[in-house]
Amino acid sequence: MGIWNLFSRKPFPRERRHEVERLIEELIQIGQREDFLSERPGSSFNAQCRHRRACEIGAQLHTIGGITLMEYVVKRVHKRLGATLATHLSYAWTDIGGWVP
Prior knowledge:
The protein has four helices and no strands. It has 101 residues and is an all-alpha fold. The chain has one domain.
């Protein structure tokens, strides 16, 4: 983590920090366990083959901090899980609050 990241302003209100961090950790767990996309719907995945809970979290994050917070979270997922899962998350969030992968 660069020095700029240590001092840069987070894209969410300070009082929501714990909530946002909890949601990010939940996304990390989903990515590690199941992925954010599937080849077929069912179980944890909706009719568009997107992970239901990941989509709910995306909507919550959008409510808290909009597209800017969603971009921040995708970068955090990229850092923890790699480019492929970050891309899958981005596609799972298609159309949430106007999100475009």
